């Protein structure tokens, strides 16, 4: 009886240790938690929102226009922004409307802010060449903007980001619970 109890205890301990190791591997290589710090992605994401970031999804399925990503801005800080321009894209804003490679795109995620701003001007007019000196987004780079266009530090200020800086794609907002959302 005592031997059976010892054996069962060892099996439980092994199962627990294996579970911890699997959790650490998943956390380190596949998913990460992130807390939004600031208001640059409002109204989509607000200060204090807690997110799950998929670290491998963007490599497997490639990033797409309007994906929300987290990237290393510098040694200490990570930023969360929306992908607007992919490698090879020509991005411009005319009359506060987005054009990618000459095609007009609607940005419905900006509607609540657009209605609050005089004349609906959020982003302003610009071309990539005016703000970066390049006509198109370079290979292995992205052009990113915050949804709070009037209060976001983004590619209009610091230029392109390298795809190597990307931590991952935002997959889930889990806090606050009443704002739970998947697939940004």
UniProtKB/TrEMBL annotation:
It is an enzyme of class 3 (hydrolase). It is a single-pass type II membrane protein. GO terms for molecular function: serine-type endopeptidase activity; signal peptidase activity. Residues 10-175 form the Peptidase S26 domain. Pfam families: Peptidase_S26. Its main location: membrane. It is found in: Cell membrane; Membrane. It comes from the Bacteria. The active site is at 40, 81. Keywords: Hydrolase, Membrane, Protease, Transmembrane, Transmembrane helix. Its EC number is 3.4.21.89. The chain crosses the membrane at residues 12-31. One of its GO terms (biological process) is signal peptide processing. GO terms for cellular component: plasma membrane. Belongs to the peptidase S26 family. This is Signal peptidase I. It comes from Niallia nealsonii. The gene is lepB.
């Amino acid at each position: 009886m005592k031997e059976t109890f010892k054996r069962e205890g060892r099996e439980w301990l092994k199962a627990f240790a294996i579970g911890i190791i699997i959790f650490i591997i998943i956390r380190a290589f596949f998913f990460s938690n992130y807390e939004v710090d600031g208001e640059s992605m409002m109204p989509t994401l607000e200060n204090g929102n807690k997110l799950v970031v998929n670290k491998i999804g963007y490599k497997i399925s490639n990033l797409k226009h309007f994906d929300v990503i987290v990237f290393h801005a510098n040694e200490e800080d990570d930023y969360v922004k929306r992908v607007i321009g992919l490698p090879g894209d020509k991005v411009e804003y005319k009359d506060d409307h987005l054009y990618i490679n000459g095609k007009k795109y609607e940005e419905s995620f900006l509607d609540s802010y657009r209605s609050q701003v005089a004349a609906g001007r959020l982003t302003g007019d610009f071309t990539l060449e005016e703000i970066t000196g390049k006509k198109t987004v370079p290979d292995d780079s992205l052009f990113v903007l915050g949804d709070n266009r009037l209060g976001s530090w983004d590619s209009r200020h610091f230029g392109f980001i390298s795809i190597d800086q990307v931590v991952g794609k935002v997959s889930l907002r889990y806090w606050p619970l009443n704002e739970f959302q998947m697939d940004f």
